[in-house]
């Protein structure tokens, strides 16, 4: 591992500087490819490091004449090399890239992109010319006339002597990662050059491969930290190659993911747990028989709970196809760049924890299968101080005690863009003894034998297939889409039993809606939440005005509503349970 | 006259076979018993989500040789609505009748 590391010991202090070093070292190496159909490689679009550098330089030359260093620029692209060029072009020009989804499909997604653009104060949006109509429509629908679209694939090449932007300091902001906060309260994590270089190096060391053998396959969206940092940016900074698939290609045919690994002899690929399950369920025996997965050495499972039975079924199903990659459960979050802890090995480390003890806030091993909850180790923290802290008393806890995960180190981001109060609260926390500053993650876990075991979370978010859903967004979408649901609403998470995914419960105050309409209205709620958020609704409860609890300042009390729901003390006018 | 009746009869069979196929497929993705699927209720009520909606659309494409939008199962949310939509593309669907057997 150390030999591989020293082979690319980077001296650069900036992300652009590190990438330029790789271009100088091996301009002809393949940097990034878009795989449209892994069974037909002639449709794959491949760019070398040199080509990517040239395209990024063209973007930078354009931005250099129209933006000032530090300006925010929105990037809305489908997966592909053009996104990589636009992202690096922003870094070359010293402007702050703000990756976002394409404003298509659902109303929710369009609102989200608008909220990101507004919060970041972006004056320019970069996109591919084939999305010209989509972008124009969005800008006009959302009345964002101040934002200028630029289509980067049709820009002229950079003039031969473009003056380089001044080299940014390692602590300056490189880009904003908008995966946190509801749409009404979108929060951009401000990542510095040092954050990214540090996390990229950590990820590189886990792979334990020489750069020329780092071949990744990524179908995760590139506006998501696990896609962008984990599988595009990190390999580019150390000299690897990334094969991109559109997320829709994977969802349509999960076979495309594994076939791309096979076809391009990929060594590394990461995905949330559900993806491994989809492969088991939706790849036919004939297709399994055609696969050769023997090149795959590291399979990372992150962004969601790791389901032990899914992983076992995946191994059983694909071992005959040569699958023998080491499994790599990981814990991380955008607020700490990406990776916090990880453990790589042929077998997972699993504890049988006594459920009763765990509910009381501590780990105790049990020999009884009935009393046991199986918990998978996420491995040791990587170059980061990790404390488990009692979230009420703010006291650090000893091993085996369940507490909130607090972090301090070079991977921890600067804070939320333009939000000093929330940054202070979450990124500058101190313990009761005054020790700090720490990042409060809102996640719960304990430490055992030097490794992190994640057990749950305090924060009110719902995770579906590795993506965070905010209850506020569900509540406001219901109000916006269903006229009968104009009243106060509290959506909350119902944690799944064991490895099952989270589900959602909706409690909604109803006024002047005829009782006979309520069953249909409840079905509309289930349909809307599935369509717009992809989440499963466990129950819909229609309540009388005043029954959704709120604080004196009017904030709905989701935690209390969940407690009442679980205790059966709500008295709904109508309840729909699934 | 008899030709028309015959044609109508065949269409009837098509619709029933299609419905049966779709119910079985949807039931598999949402992990429930096919006998419990109400063909006039939106499949989202049984737990169909964005990922299984795409899976069903892809299976329809593969089986019937049609090209469908990824949003098909949201535009036609019940089994009967999907069947009706497919029958409106009838020549293509009819050609694939053997697939249903």
Written description of the protein model:
The complex is a heterodimer of chains A (578) and B (101). With 578 residues, chain A is of the alpha/beta class. Chain A contains 18 helices and 27 strands. Chain A folds into three domains: 2-340, Rossmann fold, CATH 3.40.50.12780; 350-377 and 384-457, Luciferase, domain 3; 462-577, GMP Synthetase, Chain A, domain 3 (2-Layer Sandwich), CATH 3.30.300.30. An eight-stranded mixed β-sheet of chain A has the order 2-1-10-9-11-12-13-14, sandwiched between helices. Chain A has a four-stranded parallel β-sheet with strand order 4-3-5-6, with helices on both faces. The longest helix of chain A is centred in the N-terminal third of the chain and has 18 residues, at 49-66. By secondary structure, chain B is mainly α. Chain B contains six helices and no strands. Classes of the chains: A alpha/beta (578), B mainly alpha (101). Chains A and B meet through helix 9, helix 11 and helix 17 of A and helix 2 of B.
